[in-house]
Amino acid sequence: MVTPSGPVVTPSGLVVLTDRTLSVRPLPETVAAAVRGGAEWVLLRERDLPPSRRTALAAALRAVLPPGRLIVAGPDPLGGNAVHLAERDRSPAESGERPALVGRSCHAPAPGAEGGTSHSDVDYVTVSPVYPTTTKPGYGPALTPAGAAAIAGDRRWLALGGIDTADRARACADAGAAGIAVLGAVMRASDPERVAGALSAAFADARARTGVRSGR
């Protein structure tokens, strides 16, 4: 891991979260199809796998993604340089090493001092659940896009949770999200390329309409 020395490219557009237990196809096939449809980033979860299998899976996913577009959940980037941390995970900076890209999950305003961090140590946050989600039934309450934006404040943020229609993707863009993080709608799809295409196009159109550009 290295400390970034220049501007960091942060996730935007459609970000696909993985769950091999839900994927209709082998996970690399689902991810490749989503990328063809317009997914710009992938966040590898699968934290139940042993390290060797998870590292091999990370390599397989990197083979179907543009360079640098795989983010790994947890503190170990598995040979890459991008991680996504749980809300109360310790900052990588505390160990003296920081990957080039660090994200963090966020479900409420800045956590309290007991076991939490201010989130000032990260490049972006995911805010969830924006909508009710079938992947985690009962997880919530749903924040709504406006509620998620209020929690994110001035931090760059991705909307996560229940974003399974074009209308919901557009609503997140209108609320100021830099991207939409999607799991179930893509993993469960018989045609992940079509689903990814519909969601990414709707989000991009709404961002363009509001005059906001994704990117750095």
From TrEMBL:
Give the metabolic or biological pathway. Cofactor biosynthesis; thiamine diphosphate biosynthesis
* Example GO molecular function: thiamine-phosphate diphosphorylase activity
Keyword Transport assigned? no
What are the Basic and acidic residues biased-composition ranges?
87-97
Q: Which GO terms describe its cellular component?
A: cytoplasm
Tell me one GO biological process term.
thiamine biosynthetic process
- Please state every residue range assigned to the domain named Thiamine phosphate synthase/TenI: 14-186
Q: Where is this region: Disordered?
A: 87-121
Keywords, alphabetical: Thiamine biosynthesis
Task of the protein: Condenses 4-methyl-5-(beta-hydroxyethyl)thiazole monophosphate (THZ-P) and 2-methyl-4-amino-5-hydroxymethyl pyrimidine pyrophosphate (HMP-PP) to form thiamine monophosphate (TMP).
Protein name as annotated: Thiamine phosphate synthase/TenI domain-containing protein
From what organism does this protein derive?
A: Mangrovihabitans endophyticus
